[in-house]
Predict the structure.
Amino acid sequence: MLKKWLREPLLHFLLIGALLFLVYGLRNEGLVDQDNRIEISEADINRLITVWEKKRQRLPTQVELRGMIEQQIREEVMYREALVMGLEHNDPIVRRRLAQKVEFISADLVAQVEPTEAELSEYLAAHSEKFELPGRINFVQIYLNTDKRGAGVQEHAQQLLEQLNHTDSKVDVTTAGDPIMFGQQHEQVTMREVSRLFGNDFASKLFALPVGNWQGPILSGYGFHLVRIDNKTTARQPALDAVREKVRNEWFAQQRRTMDEAFYQSLRQRYEIVIRDGNVKDTVASANP
């Protein structure tokens, strides 16, 4: 049991996150006496040069580089003065941006862990509905317009169906019915696609029919349809190799959500949360809500 827990990615994420906050705390201990010091490192300068080169497709001149460095210093001076003046407080945009930057820490931790084959297979099996390959169908239809043919449309449909299924039928399928904007021939369409064209009820009845003879009539919002299904496949689960990238992306998304929540809860426990609402009595939220 202990070995299985030690292999859990979430435990790794939490340990790495705790280590990061420890490092940040140690680094920030000595900053109080250095608030008036601004240091532009060689790494900072290289970053400025790289950004310039990507944008301008050339290296900056010495004058341009000095200008960028001065701009960096100006930005840092203004940033620190803004903090001193407390300008970051009560600014929803700044608050949201800073909160997002903290959340990015957990997202970065997730990105460091690559799922194993077993984890991907387990995720695929546990969320099979997300990756299911839908059934597809090939069918031909003869459409009968109820507005055009009136009350006798169903009777005419039954007569036409008998003629179509007669062994020596000479019915010309292309001219037997009425024109419809979607055409007569449909190949490799899913139930969702059929539903979008003819409605859910029509699609359900169509996919329930066997392959072979002409059948119907099936009613849609347009009128009656006689159909012949030439080929049909049922929904199936794909092999991992066929959907590996999609499964991997979904796995990362789930891990990120799990990590975000665990990360937030670990931080939240450090605070006493008081919620004051005129509609309810004052509530002191526990560390574990």
Notes: The beta strands are 136-145, 185-190, 214-219, 223-232, 273-275, 283-285. The chain has 13 helices and six strands. The chain has three domains: 1-26+103-133+241-289, 40-87, 134-232.
